[in-house]
């Protein structure tokens, strides 16, 4: 098996994922793009494991770890997105730039002014 074909496919998938992370403003689509990048990494790990004919199959074992970590990352990411949506009613990254409570800036400025005055 030529290692070039899976490597080119993985590079293409990774590039699409990077474009999705940089260009998209929807949090769900950004998470999907990160998962696409992780799948490209998995494809590379398996392809190079087959190409090198590793007796311990380290690439395949590492792929399983990456899949588990990706699933945990997706679960935590979706939980954060759900919590932000419940509070802000949006999942657009442009509108969720400030995660502080409304009015928290004024309280912080008042506390800073009070501490600086004494």
From TrEMBL:
Subcellular location: Cell membrane; Membrane
Domain of life, source organism: Bacteria
Residue spans crossing the bilayer: 6-22, 29-52, 64-85
EC code(s) of this entry: 7.1.1.-
Example GO biological process: ATP synthesis coupled electron transport
Bilayer topology: Multi-pass membrane protein
Catalyses which reaction(s): a quinone + NADH + 5 H(+)(in) = a quinol + NAD(+) + 4 H(+)(out)
Record carries keyword Transmembrane: yes
Function of the protein: NDH-1 shuttles electrons from NADH, via FMN and iron-sulfur (Fe-S) centers, to quinones in the respiratory chain. The immediate electron acceptor for the enzyme in this species is believed to be a menaquinone. Couples the redox reaction to proton translocation (for every two electrons transferred, four hydrogen ions are translocated across the cytoplasmic membrane), and thus conserves the redox energy in a proton gradient.
Family: Belongs to the complex I subunit 4L family.
Subunit structure and binding partners: NDH-1 is composed of 14 different subunits. Subunits NuoA, H, J, K, L, M, N constitute the membrane sector of the complex.
Protein name per Swiss-Prot or TrEMBL: NADH-quinone oxidoreductase subunit K
Gene: nuoK
